[in-house]
Amino acid sequence: MKIIVLAGGEGKRMWPINTDKCLIPFLGKSLLYHNLKKINARLPGVEFIIVASPQTKDGVEKVAEELKLDYKIVIQNEPSGMADAILSAKHLIAGEILIVNAEDILDASVFQNNYEGDVMLTGIKVDKYFPGGYIKVEGESVKGIVEKPGEGNEPSDMVKLVADYFKDGQKLIGYLEKAKSERDDIYEVALSQMISDGINIRLARYEGVWIPLKYPWHILDITAYFLSKLEQQISPAAKLSEKAIIEGNVVIEEGVKVFEGACIKGPCHIGKNCIVGNNSMIRESNLEEGCVTGFSSDITRSYIGANSWFHTNYIGDSVLEGDFGAGSGAVLANLRLDNQTIKVGEEKLDSEREKLGLIAGQGVRVGVNASTMPGVRVGGNSLIGPGVVLRKDLKEKRKITIKEESYQEQDYESAATTYDQFRDKLKH
Amino acid sequence: MKIIVLAGGEGKRMWPINTDKCLIPFLGKSLLYHNLKKINARLPGVEFIIVASPQTKDGVEKVAEELKLDYKIVIQNEPSGMADAILSAKHLIAGEILIVNAEDILDASVFQNNYEGDVMLTGIKVDKYFPGGYIKVEGESVKGIVEKPGEGNEPSDMVKLVADYFKDGQKLIGYLEKAKSERDDIYEVALSQMISDGINIRLARYEGVWIPLKYPWHILDITAYFLSKLEQQISPAAKLSEKAIIEGNVVIEEGVKVFEGACIKGPCHIGKNCIVGNNSMIRESNLEEGCVTGFSSDITRSYIGANSWFHTNYIGDSVLEGDFGAGSGAVLANLRLDNQTIKVGEEKLDSEREKLGLIAGQGVRVGVNASTMPGVRVGGNSLIGPGVVLRKDLKEKRKITIKEESYQEQDYESAATTYDQFRDKLKH
Amino acid sequence: MKIIVLAGGEGKRMWPINTDKCLIPFLGKSLLYHNLKKINARLPGVEFIIVASPQTKDGVEKVAEELKLDYKIVIQNEPSGMADAILSAKHLIAGEILIVNAEDILDASVFQNNYEGDVMLTGIKVDKYFPGGYIKVEGESVKGIVEKPGEGNEPSDMVKLVADYFKDGQKLIGYLEKAKSERDDIYEVALSQMISDGINIRLARYEGVWIPLKYPWHILDITAYFLSKLEQQISPAAKLSEKAIIEGNVVIEEGVKVFEGACIKGPCHIGKNCIVGNNSMIRESNLEEGCVTGFSSDITRSYIGANSWFHTNYIGDSVLEGDFGAGSGAVLANLRLDNQTIKVGEEKLDSEREKLGLIAGQGVRVGVNASTMPGVRVGGNSLIGPGVVLRKDLKEKRKITIKEESYQEQDYESAATTYDQFRDKLKH
Fold first, then answer.
1. Are C261 and C125 found together in one domain?
2. How far is CA B428 from its chain centroid?
3. Which element (helix H / strand E) includes C299?
4. Which residues of C65-77 are buried (b: 16+ CB within 10 A; e: fewer)?
5. Which CATH number fits the domain that encloses residue C281?
6. Which residues contact C117 (CB under 8 A, 6 or more apart)?
7. Residue C85 belongs to domain with CATH number
8. Is C31 exposed, middle or buried (0-12, 13-18, 19+ CB in 10 A)?
């Protein structure tokens, strides 16, 4: 069997995260690495045909080499839908194929050992409306696919996942080449034609984990997923103070230093060469390599990209792509005071999260005593000046500061108190 | 003997604290509870006639039931002075009566086992002017009462407390019904008439503790009083980390959790189900039930009403009615830099305290990195936005934020440094 | 031999530090004390002639008495150059003299046991331009002195230190009285004349430590120098919590208290009666006596003058003259986000330091949650209001605050959440 891995899709909705979705690292390895490793273990000996974009090609290749896969890479020059991606690889397709997404999180059980019939699609039952493809079901047969039907118009409670089996890959190619659509749904049109032509499409009902990655805050869901799989493992090449506290399922990589009074409560992953400073507290978070959390930092349920640094900050439920820096006293607020879910951007996109902090692209800097409001997004290499309260999104390479005119200067007859008076006051 | 408890007075000067004075909880029980329990223990078997307001009725009844008192409750519909309060209960008054305030803190010794004579009032010697009633004294006899004589016009250094004994309660009723005054001093006029009629009023000189509750910062004095009575007592149903520090007379109620690195220095009361987070420090404070002090909070000499929550805050000498919430980095300043006592409100009311933080009604929220200046008052359900420096009082249901125009945005040519450079800088 | 100590120079470039340079204390003793003690140990039995200013006289006398020196003090009424300073002492000069600066840090080895020849000057090799006097060298002979030649015009790589030996002090007096110059270089003119007259001036090449004190940030270099000499020494009259961490070469003087969770990482000097509060961290810093670091303060590589107090602050690479006070959450930033060295003042004076915090005169106060930018200078007795971000220098006795107009107030329909909802959110 050949596995067609779709790894070239664009991620407009991921702004300000620029890293291609499947290459975002978790626990030190990219999402693609984790997913291909899982398939390769479940279906040993398969061949991978990976459809990459020009941007993802190098990263994809590195992953395939590291996993020692039997693989070929195909480049899709423009991201223009699933059908186009599959057609990019048509010269390599022959016999049985299984089409999968590079970035969706699914349990290994979704990949079956014995596929039967000509076509088998996979559905998952949902509790509430999801903006994807729904499956028209009759018994165990698929009778149609409806893309984004809109809430209330769903043909069933079954959403189609991308784990599509075809006994004859070339037959699919034929259907794709004939299918026509104005919309971005040529693949679904081709499937409908198959059904019209009497081809039996079987439904596999999947009941495991499914975490799609559409918006940047989904990175927090994926982080939580990977953290939930951890067991405690501390590198012998890490230096931990005896006065630090490590509790629960914490993975600490080589070269890490943890100083006195620091507290790491699992599940947590602390990447290579990270420094966890005195009195810092890290909970339920993933730190990629080379991060420094200075004195008394507090990092909770966050994704922290490589080489980020902190000093006495509160970082809650935040997604920081990497090379992030925060001055002392900067706070990334994560909780609205009115009990509503966090809405993102001018379009008030509902994150459906009650807690969401900052979402920052690569290289963002936050000045001392600055604050960012829940769900704010900041483009790469931007600067939030000291003392600023940032309430709205900021584009790439922008700098926001407090105007000098906000201050007034006057003479000051300091009622200089003696030391002893102050000391008395300060004593307790 | 019947004890007439005045528990219906209004508390205009207590703004923004809305809870009726006698129902404010300390150590998990209302002031009324503490006071009636003390009287009941000192004078077992007495009957209580409690004059409540429509607002306090339920709370008063609950206290009386809990203490299993022999009691009756009378409702005074409008708060209109002490004489009116007593007259509300005239149908229940017969024989010996002792009139007391529901909220004043006095030692049990003020309630005597054997009262003698027809009338006995209680006075306390004061060092400086107090805006209350002064007693004209001759030997051990009261020769008159002067309400708020003004500084320099005091007839003596004896202020009249409310612990007034009358052998014949109905005789007092008669005098009250005949007394007339334009001012709020009918009770004192009635006493003067008694004296004119030759009734001998004896003076009991009291030398113990006396803490009146007129202004909200007096809650801090009462807190200190109750804390001074504590002995260490830790509920077996509390969970204390072995890496937490508990020192001195600390009472920890059931359901409390204290995390690693937290430090509680007595005297302190930590109410039911409170959570004291990592590295938090609590000193000389009363926390009512259900409070959460997140990471690295610092609470000193404060009254913290139920269900308040904190996260990396400094809370000094503050009175927070309850359901208070503070974002990370918010600071309630408590000390003027010019060594003066803290003045409160536009009228510059002198609190006579060198340290006084925020006084907040129920449900106040303070945003991340916001600051409040010493002695500021904030009405219930108001919001102090992130980064705001609040220098003046805020009414109920108000929101104060920084104007967007205070910021400027520009292009930013980030001199993005490499990770290694930063890492070198940050290493020590 | 007589040692002429120049201790009356002015220090315009030291603003906002007002303490005369040689009287600035390090490790509890003034710079003059350290320097004279070193000379006295190296050259026992010499006589000191100290040229003081009217301002330094008392301090100088105290030092000389404490060291039990054989000394005389001469007052130079106006600070007008080295020649004038020496001439102030001409009535005391006879025989061999050695002229030294009161404040430069030099190893003892610079003072030689056996001076030879008529005149011996001392030079140090420099790697890059220094704005001082350069020596024209031929073999081991001095052929001239060039004051501040400008970069690229240096006659050699040898900068002249002030450690000048004259076999016949009165001969120098004679030359000084005859020398004339419009500029502040009469001393150098006199030396040139000596050379012209055929007097052989020998050169001593010095290779040890040399730290001049010209700008206030040099105080940090001198602090590092003194700290580097420390060995761990903890006064038996200090009280250290068993839960505090003391690491490395830390000197703790008598009367010091160190509370639970505090961490002092050497080299550090903690002066008499200092209080190091709970969870505070102090690294590579000198605290003069009577300082108080409240809860969770973080002091790094800084000079902290006597009687300063802190409460949850970050103090990095800062020079605080003394009696400094900072409210909770105030941050003295020390690092530019663009990797440049810190420039100081409107004239953008390059400190050549990548990290430099605040430079504050005596009695400066910083409000809660205020921030100061790297390299800012603040004159004595000034106040930086709460929440202010100070980007530029502030003169003496000035007060800078946020304008009230920066805020807006509105009605607030608080979506008051119930306690249980919040509690659920806050639990982890």
1. no
2. 49
3. strand C298-300
4. eebebebebbebe
5. 2.160.10.10
6. C167, C200, C201, C202
7. 3.90.550.10
8. buried
DSSP state of A58: H
Q: Residue A416: inside a domain, yes or no?
A: no
Is C394 at the interface with chain A, CB within 8 A? Answer: yes
Name, in order, each residue with C-beta under 8 angstroms of C141's C-beta and a sequence gap of 6 or more.
C200, C201, C202, C203
Instruction: Looking at the structure, tell me whether residues A143 and A48 fall in a common domain.
Output: yes
CA pair distance C282, C301, nearest whole angstrom: 8
Q: How far apart are CA A81 and CA A67, in angstroms?
A: 27
Q: Do residue C364 and residue C246 come from a single domain?
A: yes
How many angstroms separate the CA of residue C366 from the nearest CA in chain A?
12
In the Cβ-directed half-sphere of C421, how many Cα atoms lie within 13 Å?
Answer: 15
Question: How large is the ipTM?
Answer: 0.92
Of B156, B187, B211, the residue at which a domain comes to its end is B211
Q: What's B171's DSSP letter?
A: H
Please check whether residue C410 touches A, CB under 8 A.
no
In a domain, A421, yes or no: no
Host domain of residue A78: 2-211
For B314, the closest chain C residue by CA position comes to: C328
The answer to whether residue C229 is domain-embedded is yes
- The three-point CA angle C200-C204-C206 to 5° equals 160
Stretch (H or E) spanning A53: none
Do C230 and C144 have their domain in common? no
**SS3 sequence of C156-191:** CCEEECCEEEECCHHHHHHHHHHCCCCCCCHHHHHH
Return the CA Rg of chain B. 25
How many domains does chain B divide into?
2
How far is the C-alpha of C29 from the C-alpha of C286, rounded, in Å?
12
Which chain A residues are within 8 Å of B428, Cβ to Cβ? none
Identify whether residues B245 and B349 lie together within a single domain.
Answer: yes
Neighbours of B248 (CB within 10 A): 14
Q: A175 is written with which tokens?
A: 């259907």
Check whether residue A257 and residue A372 sit in a common domain. Answer: yes
CA atoms lying within 13 Å on the CB side of residue A194: 29
**What DSSP assignment string belongs to B101-145?**
ESS-EE-GGGS-SS--SSEEEEEEE-SS--SSEEEEEETTEEEEE
> DSSP readout, B231-286?
--EE-TTSEE-TTSEEESSEEE-TT-EE-TT-EEESSEEE-TT-EE-TT-EEES-E
Residue C411: inside a domain, yes or no? no
Q: Can you tell me which residue has the tokens 């005597």?
A: B112
Are residues C232 and C379 both part of a single domain? Answer: yes
Mean pLDDT in consecutive groups of 10 residues from the start of chain A, 428 residues? 90 93 97 97 95 95 97 91 93 95 94 88 94 91 91 94 96 94 86 93 95 96 98 98 97 98 97 98 98 97 98 98 97 86 95 96 97 97 97 97 96 62 50
Q: How far is CA A238 from CA A269, C63, C79, in A?
A: 13, 50, 58
What backbone phi and psi angles, to 5 degrees, belong to B264? -120, 115
Last residue of a domain, one of A179, A211, A243: A211
Q: What is the pLDDT of residues C47-104, one digit of tens each?
A: 999 999 999 999 999 999 999 999 999 999 888 889 999 999 999 999 999 999 999 9
| Domain identity same for A251 and A190 | no
- The H or E element spanning position B228 is helix B218-228
SS3 C107: coil
> How many CB contacts within 8 angstroms connect chain A with chain B?
138
* Contacts of C305 by beta carbon, 8 Å cutoff, 6+ apart: C25, C288, C320, C321, C322, C323, C324, C362
Q: Taking CB atoms and an 8 Å limit, are A414 and C383 in contact across chains?
A: yes
Classify C233 as helix, strand or coil: strand
CA separation, residue A426 to residues B319, B355, C253, C382 (Å) = 19, 10, 20, 21
Taking CB atoms and an 8 Å limit, are A312 and C307 in contact across chains? no
Residues 285-324 of C with CB under 8 A from B: 295-296, 300-301, 311-312
pTM of structure = 0.94
